[in-house]
Design goal:
Blueprint: E1 3-5, E2 13-17, E3 23-27, H1 44-54
Antiparallel strand pairs: 1-2, 2-3
Length: 58
């Protein structure tokens, strides 16, 4: 995680490092950083697979 981006009236976004020169944005509710459990959360394994799949995307 690089930082948390907040906008009035919207769910906070977790900003993560992506492929070189890019960033990946996830809603806070999709991470284990959310204050309460939510359905459909992203696991570490899913994030690793996403990172691998998008590593060469451009």
């Amino acid at each position: 995680m690089l930082f948390l981006k907040k906008a009035p009236g919207r769910e906070p976004l977790v900003v993560c490092a992506g492929p070189p020169g890019a960033q990946v944005y996830l809603g806070l509710g999709w991470t284990d950083l959310a204050p309460a459990p939510a359905a459909g959360r992203v696991s570490v394994e899913s994030l690793a697979a996403l990172a691998e799949a998008t590593r060469h995307a451009r």
